[in-house]
Design brief:
single chain, 103 residues, alpha+beta, 4-stranded antiparallel sheet, 4 helices
C-alpha cells in the first residue's frame, strides 16, 4: 500500500479473536479492516470477534510475537495470524496413546 501512514513507525491495529479456535487472533490495519484477509482464511477462522485496538510500533512488547514482524505482515499481506500456542508434549501423549480400560 502506498499510503504514507503505512510506512511510518506506528500502525493502528485491530485485533480479532476466532469464534472457532481458542487463542487464535487476527491482526489487521484498523483502516482496512478485514478487506485484505483471504476468504478461505476467514472461513476457517470463523466469525471474527473484536478483541482490542492497539497502536503497534517496532519496540512494542507483545506476548507471542515481535511487533515489527506483525507490522511487516500487515503491510505486506494485509493481516497477521497468531496461532494458539503448541500443546505441551505430555498433553499430546493423551491423544497419541489410547486409554486402556481398567477393570
Amino acid at each position: 500500500m502506498s499510503d504514507d501512514r503505512m510506512r511510518g513507525d506506528k500502525l493502528l491495529c485491530e485485533v480479532f479473536k476466532s469464534s472457532r479456535m481458542e487463542e487464535m487472533y487476527l491482526y489487521v490495519d484498523k483502516r482496512e479492516g478485514l478487506t485484505r484477509v483471504p476468504e478461505p482464511l476467514l472461513e476457517r477462522f470463523g466469525k471474527p470477534l473484536p478483541a482490542m485496538t492497539l497502536i503497534l510500533s517496532p519496540e512494542k512488547r507483545m506476548g507471542r510475537a515481535q511487533a515489527a514482524d506483525v507490522m511487516a505482515a500487515i503491510r505486506e499481506k494485509g493481516f497477521y495470524l497468531q496461532m494458539p500456542p503448541a500443546k505441551e508434549e505430555y498433553l499430546l501423549d493423551l491423544y497419541r496413546t489410547p486409554t486402556e480400560a481398567r477393570y
